[in-house]
Amino acid sequence: MTPRRVVALIAAGRIEATKVGRRWEVTEVPGARSRRPLSVRSRQSLAHALHERTLSGLEGQERARTAARIRRLRTSQDPAGLLADWWGGEVESGLVDFGTNLVQHALHGDPDYVREALHRPRREYLRRREDLADTVSSERRIMGLSIDDLARTAEVEVSDVRRLERGLPVSRPSTARRVLDALGVEPTALPDLVLR
Q: CA neighbours within 13 Å on the CB side: how many for 124?
């Protein structure tokens, strides 16, 4: 870092320093973030997806990036650090939901809560077909699986995974449970799965 850049950071208040004669004596340098903060829109998408436990409402690149970020949080050794970096060290005031609550815990130095919250067993009430379809589709994307990968893991037909993601009837009643087991989701209720 150049001396000119240091003086600019001191002037902006980002580095604490005192002037001693003609020189600056740096008293405190903030810890460097290892990742850039997310844009406001990306933070809102991530907080919403964490709160609602779904990627519905997100499209294309935004959905793929949000899924990858949730996957990264779930597999990270330091998910609280990731959240703190992604939020730039501060959370917007306003509505507090599960997503923003996680960020607040991360910023207030409670990494154990963040880790535990991200690894709680997923229990879902999936009484409606569209809820089942949304859960299967969202979790598959978050886990980074293709439809073929999920079918292979669950030992079901590829066409059945496609049908589940569309809310259509499947070949056997056990198909939905096998797919949900492969995704780590425990259903507390399932829709009537009329056989095709």
A: 27
Q: Check: CB of residue 114 under 8 Å from CB of residue 106.
A: yes
Domain boundaries, the chain: 1-32, 40-118, 122-189
How far is 97 from 22, CA to CA, in rounded Å? 50
- What's at 14, amino acid-wise? R
Yes or no: domain 122-189 corresponds to CATH 3.30.420.40:
no
Quote the pTM value: 0.78
CA-CA-CA-CA dihedral for 129, 135, 140, 142, to nearest 10: 160
Say how many Å lie between the first and final Cα of the chain, rounded.
66
Partners of 24 in the β-ladder: 19
Q: What is the dihedral of CA 147, 128, 190, 135, to 10 degrees?
A: 30
Q: What is the pLDDT of residue 90?
A: 79
User: Which of residues 153 and 92 earns the better pLDDT score?
Assistant: 153
